[in-house]
């Protein structure tokens, strides 16, 4: 076997070795450049670059910007209204997590409809109160309305 | 955390097709190496080329089919990379067999290694088939810890223990001899993970702060002290530097990952340095290794540093693209087919191939750590981290030893070296990693959303009266 053939075999083998390594890396390239999230999975917010801007300017002065806990064990915890629906509860997926024994895992949520904000009970055990009334359907709340959940009181604030 | 919701909705693709594609390339790497050895050494394609290639392909594609059925979401890169490393290792061992044959010292290590590999792949498939959920292993925390310690002590027993090349890490069972330390490695990772998942809060939160470092509480030092003693025991009684470093480093990394406290690293590093100094002073075997590392050429004439120096000559001779299979002299290095297989690769395939091999090890560790990141339960995270770091430490210790970066210690190069216990244990490690990554990448089980019924306004309150 000639020297040249052996040399070519050696180069070819090294090439195969590196082709393998590089294709293995290309299979996991999403690790480096991030995974492509399908359009559908981005949901309302993603399709959302378009509908979002018109929403922003419509915000009047004096519109609430965040929900804050004013009483209870988690005083001071807040969530921005800009992120859409706010889930309140003991579960880890809640935007406002309450360490309160009288709160259910997914207790209530606060959502916007037009200019108005609603609080809605999600079938909690101990109920959600606006003022002193236990609510059974989505209820409008305004700035400063006290929403009581378990031993915790939340408010909309500017 | 806002990103969390998009990530939760993200479903990993199965990518079994990509795995098959990579596996075919890996087979080309393995079988191509075998053909290149035949062409380079004997001047012709080996006669048993078809049989050898067919066996390797059947074995690995069979394992791939098992993955398809029982772990469809498992990581697509791990298995082909391991297959390529194992194939390359087989070819290099075969090459060294041929060189030994030419010297009249006939051995068939490659054939034995192929048998071990077959066993390893079968065990790999069995692990995937039997173990459908890695969390089951958490039940065996203390059992596997005890088993690991028994396995580590076995070589010290008279009768079945044996000292080979100065290290007492072997046991003889009938015709077989095996290194129980390799199996203990897997069991120890499981034991550490199970222990740390339960106790990490106590280890992480208690303690006081000294000079920007959170020092752990005195009584929490118990396990780390025990592990330090075990490592030191291995070092002193079994004279095995590599395993001692591996076990202690493994424990330290897992402790750090579980508690997020750099204080453990400081304490552990100090203990390691202390232990190493102690060993240097007390154990002559360790002192010689250390001196040989610092002044290899001083010991060349006496033959004590013959092996590492010859390995360095070989790698230097190989240069960037190597001598080519058949043109090097890798069998000048004693144990070229086990501890020093990397120097054989460096000699005949050059730095280019050594880098490719290191990249493959890097990929394995990266995939294992990625699995740990996306895993949903703490136990799985810790097991994956532990296996990844065991792998990383082992590769670092052995490659560092062969290239002269750190003192030489006897550990096998995973998947490349000749050695049954190591090969089988590593295949089981890969099976565990695939199982955890399958669990982690699988889409979330759908929880029945009974709150949805309430959010719809179907129920109306009817006032009467």
From TrEMBL, chain A:
The lineage of its organism: Bacteria, Bacillati, Actinomycetota, Actinomycetes, Propionibacteriales. The chain crosses the membrane at residues 6-28. Keywords: Membrane, Phosphoprotein, Transmembrane, Transmembrane helix. Residues 86-135 form the FHA domain. InterPro entries: Cell_Proc_Reg/RNA_Proc, FHA_dom, SMAD_FHA_dom_sf. SMART domains: FHA. Residues 40-64 are annotated as: Disordered. It comes from the Bacteria. This is FHA domain-containing protein.
Automatic annotation (TrEMBL), chain B:
It is a multi-pass membrane protein. It is an enzyme of class 2 (transferase). The keyword Transmembrane applies. It is found in: Membrane. Keywords: Cell shape, Membrane, Transmembrane, Transmembrane helix. The chain crosses the membrane at residues 20-40, 52-70, 77-94, 114-131, 143-171, 183-199, 220-237, 243-259, 264-283, 340-361, 382-409, 415-434. It holds the Pfam family FTSW_RODA_SPOVE. Pathway: Cell wall biogenesis; peptidoglycan biosynthesis. The keyword Transmembrane helix applies. Its EC number is 2.4.99.28. It catalyses: [GlcNAc-(1->4)-Mur2Ac(oyl-L-Ala-gamma-D-Glu-L-Lys-D-Ala-D-Ala)](n)-di-trans,octa-cis-undecaprenyl diphosphate + beta-D-GlcNAc-(1->4)-Mur2Ac(oyl-L-Ala-gamma-D-Glu-L-Lys-D-Ala-D-Ala)-di-trans,octa-cis-undecaprenyl diphosphate = [GlcNAc-(1->4)-Mur2Ac(oyl-L-Ala-gamma-D-Glu-L-Lys-D-Ala-D-Ala)](n+1)-di-trans,octa-cis-undecaprenyl diphosphate + di-trans,octa-cis-undecaprenyl diphosphate + H(+). Its main location: membrane. It comes from the Bacteria. This is peptidoglycan glycosyltransferase. It comes from Nocardioides mangrovi. The lineage of its organism: Bacteria, Bacillati, Actinomycetota, Actinomycetes, Propionibacteriales.
């Amino acid at each position: 076997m000639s020297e040249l053939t052996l040399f070519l075999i050696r180069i070819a083998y090294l090439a195969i070795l590196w082709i393998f390594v590089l294709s293995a890396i290309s299979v996991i390239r999403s690790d480096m450049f991030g995974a492509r999230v399908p359009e559908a999975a981005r949901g309302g917010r993603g399709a959302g670059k378009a509908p979002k801007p018109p929403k922003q300017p419509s915000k009047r002065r004096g519109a609430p910007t965040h929900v804050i806990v004013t009483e209870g064990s988690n005083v001071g915890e807040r969530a921005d209204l800009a992120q859409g629906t706010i889930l309140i509860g003991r579960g880890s997926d809640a935007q406002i997590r309450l360490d309160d024994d009288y709160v259910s895992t997914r207790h209530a949520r606060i959502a916007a409809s037009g200019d108005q904000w609603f609080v809605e009970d999600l079938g909690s055990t101990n109920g959600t109160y606006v003022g002193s009334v236990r609510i059974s359907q989505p209820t409008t709340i305004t700035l400063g309305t006290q929403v009581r959940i378990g031993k915790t009181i939340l408010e909309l604030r500017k | 955390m806002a990103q969390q919701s998009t990530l939760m909705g993200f479903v990993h693709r199965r990518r079994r097709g990509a795995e098959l594609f990579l596996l075919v390339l890996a087979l080309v790497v393995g079988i191509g190496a075998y053909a290149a050895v035949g062409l380079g050494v004997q001047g012709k394609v080996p006669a048993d080329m078809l049989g050898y290639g067919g066996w390797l392909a059947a074995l690995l594609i069979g394992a791939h089919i098992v993955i398809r059925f029982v772990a469809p979401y498992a990581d697509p890169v791990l298995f082909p990379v391991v297959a390529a490393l194992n194939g390359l290792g087989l070819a290099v061992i075969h090459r060294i067999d041929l060189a030994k044959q030419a010297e009249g010292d006939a051995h068939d290590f490659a054939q034995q290694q192929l048998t071990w590999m077959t066993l390893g792949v079968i065990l790999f498939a069995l692990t995937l088939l039997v173990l459908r959920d890695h969390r089951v292993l958490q039940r065996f925390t203390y059992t596997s810890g005890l088993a690991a310690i028994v396995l580590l002590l076995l070589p010290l027993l008279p009768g079945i223990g044996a000292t080979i090349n100065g290290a007492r890490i072997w046991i003889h069972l009938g015709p077989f001899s095996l290194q129980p330390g390799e199996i203990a490695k897997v069991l120890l990772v499981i034991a550490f993970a199970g222990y740390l998942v339960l106790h990490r809060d106590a280890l992480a939160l208690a303690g006081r702060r000294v000079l920007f470092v959170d020092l752990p509480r005195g009584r929490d030092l118990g396990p780390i002290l025990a592990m330090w003693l075990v490592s030191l025991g291995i070092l002193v009684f079994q004279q095995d530097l590599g395993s001692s470093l591996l076990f202690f480093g493994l424990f330290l990394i897992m402790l750090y990952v579980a508690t997020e406290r750099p204080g453990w690293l400081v304490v552990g590093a100090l203990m390691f340095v202390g232990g190493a100094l102690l060993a240097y002073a007390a154990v002559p075997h360790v002192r010689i290794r250390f001196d040989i590392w610092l002044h290899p050429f001083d010991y060349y004439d006496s033959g004590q540093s013959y092996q590492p120096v010859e390995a360095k000559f070989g790698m230097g001779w190989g240069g960037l693209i190597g001598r080519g299979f058949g043109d090097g002299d890798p069998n000048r290095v004693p144990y070229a087919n086990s501890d020093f297989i990397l120097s054989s690769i460096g000699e005949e395939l050059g730095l280019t191939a050594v880098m490719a091999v290191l990249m493959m090890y890097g990929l394995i560790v990266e995939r294992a750590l990625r699995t740990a990141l996306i895993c949903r339960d703490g136990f799985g995270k810790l097991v994956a981290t532990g296996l990844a770091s065991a792998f990383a430490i082992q590769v670092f210790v052995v490659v560092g030893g062969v290239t002269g970066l750190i003192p030489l210690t006897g550990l096998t190069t995973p998947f490349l070296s000749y050695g049954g216990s190591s090969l089988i244990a590593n295949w089981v490690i890969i099976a565990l990693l695939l199982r955890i990554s399958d669990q982690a990448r699988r889409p979330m089980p759908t929880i029945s959303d009974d709150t949805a019924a309430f959010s719809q306004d179907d129920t109306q309150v009817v006032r009467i009266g």
